[in-house]
Amino acid sequence: ELSTEDPETAFCTLANREGLNPEEGSIHHCLYQFTRNEKLTETNKLLCDVCTQRHYGPKKNIKSEKKYVYTNAKKQMLISLAPPILTLHLKRFQQAGFNLRKVNRHIKFPEVIDLAPFCTAKCKNVAEGNTEVLYSLYGVVEHSGTMRSGHYTAYAKMRSMNNHLSDLVLRGQSPQALETEPVNGQWFHISDTHVQAVSASKVLSSQAYLLFYERLL
Question: What is the pTM of this model?
Answer without folding.
Answer: 0.81
